[in-house]
């Protein structure tokens, strides 16, 4: 209807100055509305995360009150681990490859080396999806072999560990 009104032969004419003023007011209204949406977009964004895997749900709820910690994870679903205030530093643990590649560690030594390099406070080891494989990923076994790792939460297919000291790749299971 706006196009029809603008092109109607008998419509009243408005000056260019008035048209530009109206366009400027409209642009300011759009910007003000956009700023309001942008400024509140992340408020309580992950306060009650709900995914399909019970173990990840439990880890996401565990992370909500956590603040300012370094959290390593083996899962690609990681945003709720940022915590309620979004202050946690969360990283998918991986090994750099040539030409900008990045892959999950294939063995215990690579996993422990990557964790040690990241100086993490916690590790969330989980599967992204439930598969026909064993309920827990191998990263759970590798991390559990470390004396400095203690279990904070365990619900298949996820285990959250707290890291309280240096990790030793020599403790990797054979």
Description:
With 174 residues, the chain is α/β, with parallel strands linked by helices. It contains five helices and seven strands. The chain has helices spanning 2-7, 16-40, 54-63, 108-118, 138-144; strands spanning 70-73, 89-92, 95-97, 101-103, 122-126, 149-155, 158-163. The strands form two sheets. A five-stranded mixed sheet has the order 2-1-5-7-6, sandwiched between helices. Helix 4 (108-118) packs across helix 5. The protein is elongated. The chain starts with a helix and ends in an 11-residue tail after the last strand.
Task: Outline the biggest β-sheet.
Answer: 5 strands, mixed
End-to-end separation in angstroms reads 74 Å
Q: What is the spatial order of strands in the main beta sheet?
A: 2-1-5-7-6
Global structural class? alpha/beta
CA-atom Rg in angstroms: 26 Å
Put simply, the count of helices is 5
Low-pLDDT residue spans: none
H and E string: HHHEEEEHEHEE
Which short descriptors sum up this protein?
elongated, 7 strands, two-stranded antiparallel ribbon, alpha/beta, 5-stranded mixed β-sheet, 174 residues, 5 helices
List the topology elements:
Elements: H1 2-7, H2 16-40, H3 54-63, E1 70-73, E2 89-92, E3 95-97, E4 101-103, H4 108-118, E5 122-126, H5 138-144, E6 149-155, E7 158-163
Parallel strand pairs: 1-2, 1-5
Antiparallel strand pairs: 3-4, 5-7, 6-7
Helix pairs in contact: 4-5
Question: How would you summarize what this structure contains?
Answer:
The protein has 174 residues and is an alpha/beta fold. It contains 5 helices and 7 strands, in the order αααββββαβαββ.
